[in-house]
Amino acid sequence: MSEIQYIAVRQLCDCYQIDMQLLENFAAAGLFTPTIENDQWFLEREELAELESLIRLVQDFQIDLDALDIIRHLRTQVLQLREQVRFLEYRNDQHERQHQQRHLEAPQRLGLIQDF
To answer: Following DSSP, what letter does each residue of 11-37 receive, concatenated?
Structure first.
């Protein structure tokens, strides 16, 4: 099992040149959950991409917290729908292969094909 890697939120603020208050607001709105140790906030590395995208939305488009939550929810739904489509495409492909196989085997099974 791999060890969880953390990023100091303060360093993230310095890197993106944002105020810590923004990330505190994100946390208060439930947009991310920091790990707090010795009064310092940390973010799990695997959550970084999502947080970066939220920061970009705020910086580039001045989107407020309520809209960020809606965008995040819609993005999650889109990803779930994509997964469902992939699964259904896979199942459809399986079904088509089985159907084609049955059609190829049917004449032989019925004795319609003869070897000479």
So the answer is: HHHHHHT--HHHHHHHHHTTS---EEE
